[in-house]
Design a protein that fits this description.
Blueprint: H1 7-17, H2 43-55, H3 61-67, H4 72-85, H5 105-117, H6 123-134, H7 140-153
Helix pairs in contact: 2-4, 5-6, 6-7
Length: about 150
């Protein structure tokens, strides 16, 4: 397999895919020193090798985690996600809510009813009505996105 044109190309690709290690300088394991194959900037590779060292080479968790720039809890999290999803389980996940958690089916039913009664309402006006009725502050763009999601599902 051809190597990246230069290190910055690989860094850009890792950044784009969310697998750029934010702390490559913390990786102190000998495999990652002056190696053309092992790259401390490649978070996926570092996590996999860390888990492999413990399971295959029977190394101690504390020492291995430290050598790879992680804490013990981070090791156990990586181990769990690897067991659940293989290599893809080691990929970083987006943080925070995955959907409009304030926009319950009840709230969205209300929004749909308001749009039917008065189609000219803006998303900002709908957000105000939701806040008034449900005492939940919702951004107008969240309502717009949720309506688009629901439209795609139909």
């Amino acid at each position: 397999m051809p190597r990246a044109k230069n290190n910055s190309d690989k860094q850009k690709a890792l950044q784009q895919h969310g697998t750029l290690n934010p702390r490559p300088q913390d990786v102190r394991h000998p495999l990652f020193e002056n190696s053309e194959f092992f790259d401390p900037s490649d978070l996926l590779q570092v996590k996999y090798e860390m888990v492999r060292q413990v399971h295959v080479d029977k190394r101690a968790v504390s020492r291995t985690a430290k050598e790879f720039g992680f804490s013990r809890p981070s090791f156990y999290q990586a181990e769990f996600t690897f067991e659940q999803g293989g290599l893809s389980g080691l990929l970083p996940q987006k943080r925070g809510p995955r959907n409009g958690h304030k926009l319950t089916p009840e709230v969205m039913k209300f929004v749909a009813e308001q749009q039917t009664l008065e189609p000219s309402l803006s998303f900002a006006q709908l957000a105000e009505q939701v806040q008034h009725k449900f005492h939940v502050k919702v951004h107008p763009r969240s309502i717009e996105r949720q309506l688009l999601r629901e439209k795609k599902l139909r």
